[in-house]
Amino acid sequence: DAARVSWPDREISLLLPEDGIVVGDETRLRQVVDNLITNALRHAGADAQVRVGLRIDHDHDNALIMVSDNGVGMDAETTAHVFDRFFRGDNSRARDTGDRTGGRGSGLGLSIVRDTARQHGGAVTVCRREPEGTRFQVAFPRYEPKGGEER
Fold this sequence. Notes:
It is a single chain. By secondary structure, the protein is of the alpha+beta class. It has 4 helices and 5 strands. The protein has helices spanning 2-6, 26-43, 76-81, 109-119, and strands at residues 12-15, 50-57, 62-69, 123-128, 134-141. Helix 2 packs antiparallel against helix 4.
């Protein structure tokens, strides 16, 4: 909902076929999702659709948060450095948002995602599908309440 306020003309869909519980700092976990959505909206291109989803990886007992777009994608060089602090991708991927950064941001958002995932026992990966979009996936250990415990 917050992203729709900032980008009212963009298509953002939420797919939640399953639910999962993870243990962590709610504010930091929300920041992970917000950073991934903002990154997709800023860099995928003005017409790109953004999809946010959650699924359970039962084999590894993880909750998987996925944010994908069908935008311009990213090249191999950008993919190799996308989680580095202060790294900002090629200007051609930046959507002109009218802010002082030209839509490129500070280069900290995805490193924050990586660090937060690690601090919560998880990991983040990126899958590039140039020129057909990008998908980020964050895996967090799933919490399963024991018998008698409330969710």
